[in-house]
């Protein structure tokens, strides 16, 4: 592939390094993702120079190497690869390299040893060692009381016409090491990437370009265990959303489950490791902290059942027991702490809790009883019953069936009104149905557990061309709704998780043909919009973050399961 790194960062499995081209200022930056997306990521501006003067360059980037070519002389170039999680190798031929540090307060550089510079990034809480293997360096870094006023380094070639640099990241102490050549470094990462791609789900030939892109995005978005992250974590993106979020993690785990089960389980266990005693999962986690400001909908049971269907690995008694207990505790959280009493339906405290941040059902305030939440919980309770049976917990299996039946009855009684589901603002008991969010259709996930007339009414609505159903999938706000908004996040654009949840449920409704049609429409969107965070339902254009992992994962699952 030839990657556009203004949209898709250059990185590698396990690394907190990423390199991106910022098309706002037309500059190339080496970035660091420690601290999550609330922490600015730019470390250095990188330029190709001639006699100390920055030159215009063109970029050529594939999965394992990034190259800068002098715009007028292709014999003058810089090459970059990331052979190890914490090492970037940079070489140049017939040209110089300039690093300009993107400074924050206290950030500084010091001469560590001959041909070695150590950088202290206070905002990122890391240190960086730059080792000059070939070439010369001129350092411009005036000191002013507490730090350098600026840091600019010009690296120039000597008799061999080459510059060769290793840039390393670490927390405390740098450890000396031998460096393999650049060619050996690149071959190492090529071999690793090939091993990854060989395990990526197969898709029809017509979607080869989408598979290539999904493969690279999922591989390059993983960071190694560090700090709060005790396991390798597939971030949602290395563009802007560089954390691991709960429910995003479920879709990535599902796509990994068939051929990469250990890493798949890690994506669930990252949140299980940090599960609060109340049962709630964190909203997101990165190496530095985890947030319980919001949470996400209860779909772990559904995701884990899918994973068990893909691979016997997840049926190991110790895995079943661990995941069962975590999902059980999470379900009890919603029943205990998100209801005012046992007779009420559970509620969301914010749109972010649902994952549909700005859905039209949240426009009049909170808390909101939404039909998707109760439907997810009902489904999760039925799945808990299945797992309890596998673990020979007979009484618990019966308990979850009973609880699921009761909540389903209550869901229909309270929220099925005038042949449609509604949401209710809890404090005022107001029906939130003046919009037409697809979230109100999400009880379809219950399949044949729904009464026949309700299931048929939902299916009829979903099949109306031009309402939710578009050329590229299902719009999250009906296209004829007054709240529909172009590029409106959850007010219209098509989202991968919703497509996966609904398509997976359609087979339980005896709607295999419709499931296949929806899968094809969504996969066709990736041929236009890539692996974007979401898609315009009218033209398939990719929106918001253009390099998203759950989009990649859902594409791979749908193309593999429904289109081959």
TrEMBL record:
This is Mannosylglycerate hydrolase MGH1-like glycoside hydrolase domain-containing protein. PANTHER family: MANNOSYL-OLIGOSACCHARIDE GLUCOSIDASE. The keyword Methyltransferase does not apply. The keyword Hydrolase applies. Residues 242-551 form the Mannosylglycerate hydrolase MGH1-like glycoside hydrolase domain. Coiled coil: none annotated. It comes from Clostridium simiarum. Keywords: Glycosidase, Hydrolase.
